[in-house]
Amino acid sequence: MPGNIRTINSPLPDQIVQPLSPHSQPTMEQPKRVILRLRETDLDEADIYEPIRLYLDKTGRSVQELDTGRHFIHIQPPNPDIPQVDPKLHLVIDVEAASFSGKLGPDFPHEVYRIRRVDGKLVMFAFKDGAWYQNFVRKLRAIIDDVYPWGGTKRDLRSSGGTSSTVGDS
Question: What average pLDDT is seen over the chain?
Fold first, then answer.
């Protein structure tokens, strides 16, 4: 198997594939937005950073990066106003938050992964790139990029009185 492809074991349908593709592995220092999608029931509320540590580990990054403030984490809970049989939530990671400021343009790198708890352990799945995935990312971005400014919160942005979205952790 090529050096920058990692296998993720998965018994899931065709929209999801086992390997992380090379196109989803930009350089470590490049800012990007990562969206981890998981069932509400798969999140351990006592350890909400567990899926984020899994992402960091599976993509060759150090879990110690969580302690450095390099990345800004947003948590998007399921919408309680929309009845859902299996509610999903999104953990949004602004990777290398200090390396970018401003609005996220249409070409800004985004990655979406599915996280599942299998036999008590979290497992990460990459989506297969294609029309379905691109449409899915576009729909997620229409909501997430508006609600969660880069590297901070809307409250941080209002407090600063500016349009730059690079603000410190709150």
Answer: 79
